[in-house]
Write a structure and sequence with these properties.
Low-confidence stretches: none
Distance between the termini: 40 Å
Number of strands: 11
Structural class: mainly beta
Number of helices: 0
Oligomer: single chain
Radius of gyration: 13 Å
Strand content: over 45%
Helix content: under 10%
Largest sheet: 7 strands, mixed
Length: 126
């Protein structure tokens, strides 16, 4: 059974940093791309970042480009999201997800991901 467990969320002041982790099990994650999404209260879940199965390619939403960095350690079956220069608008529950098909590039489309973590809360105070 595939499981994704996020950690690392919390409360931080504007301009601060957090590093989210997503530990995966139940699948050969070195063959699957992964993504991070977030959902703020009253809003749709939105794409944040994605990383290809081989870690060669990374992709970001315009709103986080230059501030967030996604990385993947295939040996540890873990994907990370380093978040710097956090702003109040980054406040949301953050979810990691794994693509549904082997060797598929990460996309911004939620339906392309078939397993999701439970989410971790990130709150940025002004």
């Amino acid at each position: 059974q595939v499981q994704l467990v996020e950690s690392g969320g919390g409360l931080v002041q504007t301009g601060g940093s957090l590093r989210l982790s997503c530990a995966a099990s139940g699948r050969t994650f070195s063959s699957y791309s992964m993504g991070w999404f977030r959902q703020a209260p009253g809003k749709e879940r939105e794409y944040v970042a994605g990383i290809s199965w081989n870690t060669f390619n990374t992709y970001y939403a315009d709103s986080v480009k230059g501030r967030f960095t996604i990385s993947k350690d295939n040996a540890k079956n873990t994907v990370y999201l380093q978040m710097n220069s956090l702003q109040p608008e980054d406040t949301a529950v953050y979810y990691c997800a794994v693509t549904s098909r082997i060797y598929k590039s990460p996309t911004r489309t939620r339906s392309d991901y078939d397993y999701w973590g439970q989410g971790t809360q990130v709150t940025v105070s002004s």
